[in-house]
Amino acid sequence: MGSYFRRQLADYVEYHRDPRNCAMHVFGIVFLFLAAVLPLSLWPITIFGFQTSAAAIAVIPVLMYWFLLDFALGAAILAAAIMLLSVAAVIASHATTTSLWSLTAILIVVGVASQIIGHRVFERRQPALVDNPTHLLLGPMFVMAKLFIALGFRRDLALIIEDHPQVAAS
Hints:
Structural class: mainly alpha
Number of helices: 8
Number of strands: 2
Radius of gyration: 17 Å
Helix content: over 70%
Shape: globular
Largest sheet: 2 strands, antiparallel
């Protein structure tokens, strides 16, 4: 884990103290990821003789970014992304275009609402990405880091995420 990621994660943690907000982020991030890749799953692409979708190609740059920030977390996010891309592909293969776009809209609304509720109701402050737009890409890393810590891995991440004093809500 590099110093850049350590600094970014420590800054991100300051906006995500309440466990209820963190839970809202798990759902929100998954829903927003699905909403982003679902329409792109409709477009098949052949690269080097392999059949894939525009969705799989579109996530490569952000996956590379996550791998550069932290290899282990990036690998875990890759596994989650493969599962979510598979879910999106199944939905795209069975849904009508109208129902797929309707589901995408619902996922966006619910995903964004969960983020806003988490911050406004539980943290009583604005979302982190308002102050620092790069936090948009740190959400999945934070959620995966919390999972690693819960499973007893990555004490280095626990030192950043858990050892900050809880700010009392006023």
